[in-house]
Write a structure and sequence with these properties.
The chain is α/β, with parallel strands linked by helices and 414 residues long. It has 9 helices and 17 strands. A hairpin with a 5-residue loop joins strand 13 and strand 14. Helix 1 packs parallel to helix 6, helix 2 packs across helix 3 and helix 3 crosses helix 8. The longest helix is centred in the N-terminal third of the chain and has 25 residues. It is globular. Bound molecules: flavin-adenine dinucleotide. The site of flavin-adenine dinucleotide has 43 residues, from helix 1, strand 2, strand 3, strand 11 and strand 15.
């Protein structure tokens, strides 16, 4: 029995599993019985949440059924974009101009704030600021991209439309147009997660792994969490940072899980010089996205399928990897890519591309962070601002924007 979904969060070993400084010391069981806050999940959202909450004023426990950094955060390609998957024009149609602009500006400030936190904490995770280039594809052609760039500029967001000729001259890319922006980043997501968990531990947070939360009861003033070890811990507040293993009772939200694939080349791959300053993605369905790493690998991904189990198919993983490598080489105008790592995983999506960051319906003491899509890291940063503010009794102007999303949702089987 468990309160959250259980699934394989990555098929085959992602690139980051072979990098140093990704392990974190943990206990096998909680040392105490009562905590001010219990965070379930030691991925990037649990790590950023713990680090935000660990200010010495409260006791915090992070608990995970896996080793820290053993979930989706290990599989992430870590394109840390302010530019969210849903274009500003589509989000404006769905939410209205004011709400859509607020989402975009919040994701922009989230990248800035994350960048500050990494610098202030001295977290070594290959963090680099990057520009982004969104190139035309079968979903948005040059006219749609031009209109999108104009809308963004009107809203005060940094965006430059690049036409076909300039795209060819500057970047050697043969597409009809692109949007250039300047506020994103990249990192090693495993080192980043481990770094924030270690920092939270230094500030007094207790980390437990290999123990699962099997049941939860909101008792009014506190939450009781039953563990697979047979223990029960009592929390003033419980926060479920369980990624795509969301709380089963939250299957009522409009939240779907799809499959996605990724590759990494060997280090020192032949690539255009400009790529090291950019995140590159295309406005297509399925889309392709790529970037370089600090040791000169090309990391690319995409080819998403609306099937939560397709990523488990090993033959499909090989086929998808070849397609991604072929498309990436064509877009960059390089020779064939020398693939070193291939991996796949599930990926949570919501109809408007926004995460769900708020209370669990029916409980004021339980919070959840889920949804995420292709901007999981950016949204984890936002969650680590909104939920700690609520716990501290402060208001956050965007609480409703990300949290109050159960209205009108349809219940699906857990
Ligand atoms: C191939 C791929 C590429 C991606 N690329 C990007 C990208 O470029 N940029 C980006 O921003 N995002 C990207 N993402 C998305 C990003 O990886 C996720 O949004 C993010 O890692 C989610 O972090 P998390 O901490 O919420 O979840 P996780 O890292 O999965 O952590 C959740 C943890 O909760 C634990 N848990 C669950 N249930 C329980 C329980 N009952 N008891 C105890 N522990 C429990 C799990 O064991 C797990 O360790 C990508 C995802 C994939 C799969």
């Amino acid at each position: 029995m468990t309160v959250t979904k259980k699934r394989d969060l990555h098929t085959d070993a992602p690139l980051w599993s072979a990098t140093p400084r990704i392990s974190v010391r943990t206990h096998r069981a909680p040392l105490g019985k009562t905590y001010d806050v219990v965070i379930v999940g030691a991925g990037i959202s649990g790590a950023l949440m713990a680090d935000s909450l660990a200010d010495g004023s409260r006791s915090v426990l992070v608990i995970d059924r896996r080793k820290p950094v053993g979930g989706s955060s290990l599989a992430s390609t870590a394109m840390i974009q302010h530019e969210i998957d849903t274009p500003l024009s589509s989000l404006t149609e769905k939410l209205g101009k004011e709400a859509a602009s607020r989402v975009w500006s919040r994701s922009m400030s989230a990248v800035e704030r994350l960048s500050d936190r990494i610098r202030e904490g001295g977290i070594h995770c290959g963090f680099q600021r990057r520009k982004t280039l969104l190139v035309s594809g079968d979903e948005l052609g040059w006219r749609a991209l031009k209109a999108e760039a104009e809308l963004r500029a009107e809203g005060g967001f940094d965006a430059e439309f690049i036409d076909r000729a300039t795209l060819g001259d500057r970047y050697g890319i043969e597409r009809t147009g692109a949007i250039l922006t300047d506020c994103s980043a990249s990192a090693n997501p495993a080192q980043m997660t481990a770094g924030f968990l270690r920092q939270a531990a230094r500030k007094g947070t207790e980390l437990v792994s290999g123990t699962e939360v099997t049941d939860i009861h909101d008792q009014g003033g506190h939450v009781e969490l039953s563990l697979s070890s047979g223990q029960t811990v009592v929390a003033g507040k419980a926060i479920f940072c369980t990624g795509y293993e969301y709380l089963k009772r939250l299957a009522l939200f409009d939240h779907d899980v799809v499959s996605t694939w990724a590759i990494a080349t060997k280090p020192g791959a032949a690539r255009p010089d400009w790529l090291d300053e950019f995140l590159l993605w295309e406005a297509s369905d399925p889309y392709l996205y790529l970037r370089s790493t600090t040791d000169g690998r090309i990391v690319a991904g995409g080819e998403d399928e609306a099937d939560e189990k397709a990523h488990l198919d090993k033959a499909k993983l090989r086929r998808k990897a070849e397609i991604i490598a072929r498309k990436a080489a064509k877009l960059l105008g390089t020779g064939p890519l020398d693939i070193d790592f291939t991996w796949a995983g599930p990926f949570g999506v919501t109809p408007d591309g926004l995460p769900i960051i708020g209370t669990v319906p029916g409980s004021d003491n339980m919070f959840t962070v889920m949804g995420y899509g292709g901007n999981g890291i950016t949204f984890s940063q936002i969650a680590s601002e909104i939920i700690p503010a609520r716990i501290a009794g402060r208001s956050d102007p965007d609480t409703k924007l990300f949290g109050d999303r159960s209205t009108g949702a349809t219940r699906r089987a857990a």
